[in-house]
Amino acid sequence: MAEFLTVTETPGQWATAEQLAMMSTRYGLAEKYSRDKEVLEIACGSGFGLGWLASQARSVIGGDIDHRNLEIAKKTYQGRDNIRISLMNALDLPLANESLDTIVIFEAIYYLEDVGKFLSEAKRVLRPGGALLISTVNREWHGFNPSPFSQRYLSAREISELLSTSGFESEIFKAFHDMPKSFKKRVVAGARKAAVWLDLIPKSMDGKKYLKRIFYGKLSPIQPELMPETDRAEALLEVKSNSQITNYKVLYAIGKKPEL
Predict the structure, then answer these.
(1) Tally of structural domains, the chain
(2) Residue 244 Cα distances to 34, 149, 174, 240, 247, angstroms
(3) What pTM was estimated for this model as a whole?
């Protein structure tokens, strides 16, 4: 099995201000769909966002395929009554039909071998009117660099089509504009592009911290539990699903299961 711990954001790692803002943007979105709900975050990794979800939800399940990630989450949330941590595969969810209100998958859908099967599973376990929330790196972004364990990155059009085919009503958004204007930022962007083209970007999160310090300056440690701070979050901009999006780093999708 892939060593997912090596590519997962985990407590103690050093992160840029933008990286922390991306985390807050994801969970700020999910908060709106968690209030008084039963929520699953699949591919939850080390679980740093589970507490934020649980601050609003009736109950939260954190599921991941990597038991080492889950050990970190279990340690963080030990004794929290409305948080359950479980080993599970996104393609075969061990959950009853129509048992959840919200499913979250953040920065992980590109690791799945069969996205269509996952969407079918998500639709099965969601109640009518339930929501599936997705965030993913935009593969059409000019600075795109794939993860070493990724299977397939999706464009906005592809996400919309897959959600529609799977029976969801979809909305697609973008955030984190990247069009360097200052000379310094253009130099940094050019250096990053060259590093990607020459395959010089380290594959692990630990390896990337040195480049982050060079390119982006001051770093801050990732905490075991992300606090509900929406002031860091970026505004999401709705996009037409057939648009090519080259200057935004992240795509977000909301798939709603139709009401009966």
Answers:
(1) 1
(2) 31, 25, 11, 9, 9
(3) 0.87
